[in-house]
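Lecture 7, part B: from sequences to assemblies.

Below are the input chains for today's worked example.
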Amino acid sequence: MNQRNFLFAVLLLATYVLVPAVFGDNNYVMGLIISALIVAGIAIAWALLGNLGGMVSFGHAAFFGVGSYASALLTMKLGWPVLLAMPMAGLIAVLFSAAMLPALRLSGPYFALAILAYAQIFRILATEMDWLTQGAKGLSRIPTLPVLFGIDLGSRSGSYLVIVTLLAAFIACYAWVRRSHYGTALRAMHDSEQATRVVGVNSVMLKAWMLFLSAFMTGVIGAFNAHTINFLEPDYAFGGGWSVLPIVAAIFGGYRTLSGPVIGALCIYLIDQLLFKSLLPTGHQIMLGVLLAAMILFAPDGLLPLFRRRHA
Amino acid sequence: MLELANVTVQFGGLSAVKDVSLRMGSDEMVGLVGPNGAGKTTLFNVISGLVKPIHGRVLFDGVDVMHEPDYKRARLGLGRTFQIPQPMHELTVRENLVVAQRFGAGRVDAARIDEILELLQLTEQAGRDAATGLALQELKRLEVAKALATEPKLLLLDEVLAGLETQGKRLFMEKLREVHARYRIGILIIEHDIETISSLCPRVVVLDFGQIIADGTPQQVFNDPAVIRSYTGVEHA
Amino acid sequence: MAELILQALYSGLLNGGVYALMAIGLALSFGTMRVINLAHGELVLLAAYMAYVVESRLDLSPLAAIPLAMAVACAGSALVYLLVARIRKNRELNSLMLSFAIGIIITNAVLLIWSGDIHSTGSVSLQEAVQLGSLYSMRSELYGFLASLVLVTLLWQWLAKSWYGRAVRAVSSQRDAAKLMGINPAKTELISFLVAGLLAGCAGVALYSSSVIQPSLGHALTVKAFIITVLAGVGSVPGVLAASVLLGITEALTVTLWSSAVQELAGMLLFLLVLFVLPNGLFGAARRRA
Amino acid sequence: MKQRLLWTTLAAAALSLPTFAEEFAVGVQIPLTGAQARAGTGMYEGIQTAAELFNKGNAKHKIKLAVVDDESNPAKAVSAVEKLAAQGVVAFVGGFASNIIGPASDASNKLGLVYMTAGGVDNDLTRRGYKTFFRVNNTRGYEKAVVTLLGELGVKSVSVVYSTKEATADLAKDLEAALGPKGIKVSMHAFDPAITDFKPIINKIKLQDKPEVIFMSAYENDYVGIIRAAKVLKPEVKAVIGVWSLATAKMAKDFPDLMPNVYGTSMLPHPVEFKQAEGRLFAETYKRLFNKEPDYQAQFGYVKGQLLFEAIARSADAGTLKKGGLADELRKTNRDTLIGRVTFDASGDNPNFQQRIGQHQAGGKIVIVSPKNEASGVAVFPGLPW
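Predicted structure of the full complex, as structure tokens:
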């Protein structure tokens, strides 16, 4: 076992055992960490689309909202078990993302804002289709995560284990794609799409796959959130915050790295809630804005690469 | 193996290629010549699927590929290079070839990649960043290497020899002959220099104003009065 | 029914005028620098708050705030430009994120300074009903529309005739070629951002005079302005006005013929439709976007 | 500034205490930023007033407020509840919108702590049957108020303009269901909260519905837009009626020419004329603390705080506070308050709740005009802002 793997094993152990052991009794801290990890989950999905697919999205709330409503409705109306409904919600988010395929032809800001338009459209549809979604009133009393192997996944520590596992799976999947030939081809497509196509790469298809994968991840995270907060309404489920915060987190941590989005999300969320909020009770998000602007100006690759460079 | 039938391309009302028909066999090496703006590159773009003709057909290996997108044509065996080299950015030279092989040929074969690198004298540069770490000559060789890695049946080379000094050009020509012989593939090559093309290709096609004005051995073609007129520009002056 | 539709068309037309004031600055800075200023809506909002300050503190008409609003929006726009111009790496994404961050800062600064209360003009004369035949509007809306017509025409002429205008157009189509012609792209870009700021200032005053402002509004304004920019296509000033009116009328007709709950839906669908079917926008110069 | 004021008053109160006073921490989870910041802030000021008055009039028990801003976000509201619970609060008071009160009171119920609220009017909240959940107002109380007013005015047709937000859409639909059987013609117009030009809607009402009354279930910014559009198009109606955040002194001051004769729910007339001594004391204290007139949010905040603090004192006296007796003690509440009689049923709802309706009248006054027995003046009807 080399040093890197050893470090990784220690980190994994600490994540799974140490965190719940230390903070397990403190619902507040666990709650904050879970909220931060939810943002981290979307941030990974966003970074995957941004880094591998080369597409910046301003509307990941669309997938998040669809995933959360899908899982809530599957469990409430059809009586599906929560743990089955969650992956299904991811697939339904993929289904909805298929409606965005025409947007893949668009570049840069056009794609970003087209996805934002989708998020708005989905929000309005969720409000208008009240026979299914109960409209603006929203859904309450959504089932919580079940008890599995004697662990109450609905408890704070249990939910923590679920979200950590989801994140680990996402990162593993992301790492695999990135290392594969698909990842190499995707990397090549950013600045040289035509050159990549004429050697046989179906660039649109690859991008579509990244969109699907990103939508799936975000949908599953949305479903997880629905079952932990037990409540949904269109303005909340499709709220701009689900699009914005993960972007800030991913950029902050370094969106081209695997762990950057997670570290970014933890930093941003915890600093904001524990520090900025006590310094500036109203409008503390101004500090987030300042932080983001400073990062882009002075460390555009994010925190993680900055840190690595210093220690290289 | 390649057959163009009555291909016509228009850009904003102007015909770039007019009613071009052409056949070439699987082991031929054909030169495509003509003055600037004659439609040579446009013809390449039609063959490789980057430009849609307003009418006409492209058959490859007896199959109509008109409705196949560019990447599928690459997989079918149509490899091409660009006049201005287009390496795949953010990738090393070797990765360029790996992607081309994996997606163009549908398989991974490191030995063959080594062989191509060796053949095009890129072994030393294999680990360099393709977009930023290569000189122009190396970039041109990488263009050919990438196309070869897709294991094509027909190679479309767009001015790969232009801009090279005499020594480099002779070397490259040898490489092309070697490629042609070793992999038994057809080559259609755009080249300006009459001398070069005459020594390289047993058959030459001349394009002017989007139309084929001559097709034959270099001897026949370059003695054709129409070709001479177009080359000396008598009519255009 | 005819009367309903006529009034909807009229309302949509007047709204479109104010939309155009908001969008044209964004379109201009996007055209020259290929940078979408995601803080543009927040600048408009900031200008609107200047009108509020002038009206509530100095007891003057909001119209008297135009110079102050223009100055503040110009300064903000110039600041965005100077910061964005510092970005070297991955400009497209990073400039989006940077201007977005500036937007967050402005929104929260407005919240901290003026709290979350809603504000709008109290001026009786601006709110007065104006009747044209069987068509009704508020006086401020009519003013806003006329101001928009005048400013758009001026801008159009300026871009077409003046040296700077030609420079702006040159830089937006061919930055490097423009450099060879002795045009300083940085200066030209700064000028286009300043002009965008001036227009945002007017838009802010128009906004305060005809509708209700609150701190969280800025982002929605940016999105609307961007939608119009896409509808119009890059590089056409009258196109922006036409696209704004089209959006305004689409919205008003949606309310009249269907339901006001889906007004935003109609705008978004129009946006996507144009984006997918006419990649150069309705009036844009032919240029591929993908 | 407000916080410093509070601290000074708390400190002053602490100095004057007999040393044996027992102090209880009460958690306040409320929106101070985000979409519901305005309402949340008003309500928080009312709660602070209740704490101030309680501490002054009660030598044996002291209430200490610990506040966390929920940023109008459900996850952060849950965090707030958990954070406050970890600090050892004995109960919660707060919340504004139902969608946030829901998850927050779920969390407090899990912790076995009482959650007292006044904002969220959604019926689903009380359908959960929590023993720990209490609420002094509900949609039904607003609906009753509007139905009563329309009855008293003898209105036969109404056009409802409502925002597709949770509380506004809820009320509009409940009202539609309640008015239909009474033979009143109702036409519904939903609008997206993002829209600003209401002329097309008002024109539909003017030319197609031709109702006697326009009813708005919306928020401040929408009211301004709707009334402006109505002033421009002048539909032939007899009254313009809204709900929350409309019949307030602030609206009268900010939009003096839009408000005349407009109706809205309001517990208090303006200038405040309290009939009982308690009301006068509340208004004086509020004015001293915050240097402005109390509005209806402050009043709800005050009542929910007051009832909770009193129950805490009773429960502490009975020695049941630490044993989960607070909920039982709170359920025994039966008293007249600034918002009328309050009792709690098994689900924690206040069945007596009925809003009152105020009307903006001459001189920037707000006069309570309905129900008749609570009225402080006579309705101007027909009466319009134009």
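Note for the exam: Chain A has one domain: 3-310. Keep this in mind when comparing with the next example.
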